[in-house]
Amino acid sequence: MSDAWRWEYDPDAEHVVGGLSPHVVAEVERLARELAVLGRDAAEVGAGHQLRNLPFLDVGLLYFLPVPSQQLIAVVRVTWAG
């Protein structure tokens, strides 16, 4: 089994980032890739217990769930006040 983690939108991109501008989506995806690189250590990033949140671009919050059993970072919600 590979040690590489991956990320994905849960349930899908339309539900999580639909309607956001391309530059916001690009930043969300950049952060998700970085969280996947962190792998298991992503559980220490941001705030929260199981569901974590990470501020970005001064007015956004990325909500994600590290799933160690699947080596997955599930991006479940993005809020944007910009």
Please render the helix and strand layout as text.
Elements: E1 6-9, H1 13-17, H2 22-38, E2 47-48, E3 52-56, E4 60-67, E5 72-80
Parallel strand pairs: 1-5
Antiparallel strand pairs: 2-3, 3-4, 4-5
Strand tally is: 5
Q: Please give the largest β-sheet.
A: 5 strands, mixed
Task: Name the helicity range.
Answer: 25-40%
Strand order of the largest sheet: 1-5-4-3-2
C-alpha geometry: globular
Please tell me the overall pLDDT: 95
What string gives the helices and strands in order?
Answer: EHHEEEE
Number of helices: 2
Cα distance spanning the termini: 41 Å
Strand proportion = 25-35%
Unreliable residue runs: none
Based on CA atoms alone, the radius of gyration comes out at 12 Å
Given helix and strand content, the structural type is alpha+beta
